[in-house]
Write a structure and sequence with these properties.
Blueprint (H helix, E strand, L loop, with lengths): L3 H6 L11 E6 L2 H12 L7 E2 L6 E6 L2 E8 L6 E4 L2 E4 L1 H11 L2 H20 L8
Parallel strand pairs: 1-4
Antiparallel strand pairs: 2-3, 3-4, 5-6
Length: 129
């Protein structure tokens, strides 16, 4: 898992409910065939390939929107919880920044503001030098 669900699993405060599931899978001909078969049983009956640079497939299956990123290898730092592998906060934030989508940049800006508010509100006990 990557994206907002990974952030939530790692304890990062979300500002909005996720509206999809982002996941990474190892790219292979077998995986692409499997995803094609899943797509054939999906709600919208087709795969949505983005460009080759993204290497991403979007599927709506049983009412759930899934963004599936085909990767050559998994990031070496991951967190396991209940048999699910989650990307780290650093990994997710790095890719949100890299994509440069407006919604991701707004998310990052809001997250920074929230973290800064924690720092500002929790400093009363620190002695000023």
């Amino acid at each position: 898992m990557c994206g907002s669900l990974a952030l939530e699993a790692c304890g990062f405060p979300l500002l909005n409910e996720p509206n999809d599931i982002d996941m990474e899978v190892l790219d292979s001909p077998e995986m692409r065939e499997f995803l094609t078969n899943v797509s054939l049983s999906s709600d919208d009956d087709k795969l949505h390939y983005h460009n080759d640079e993204d290497n991403r497939i979007d599927i709506i299956w049983r009412g759930v929107k899934m963004n599936i990123w085909l990767v050559k290898e998994f990031d070496s730092k991951q967190i396991w919880s209940e048999h699910i592998r989650y990307s780290t906060i650093e990994h997710v934030l790095k890719y949100k920044l890299q994509y440069g989508r407006k919604k991701d940049l707004e998310f990052l800006s809001n997250a920074i503001s929230k973290i800064t508010s924690y720092l500002n509100s929790g400093n009363e006990h620190i002695k000023k030098s």
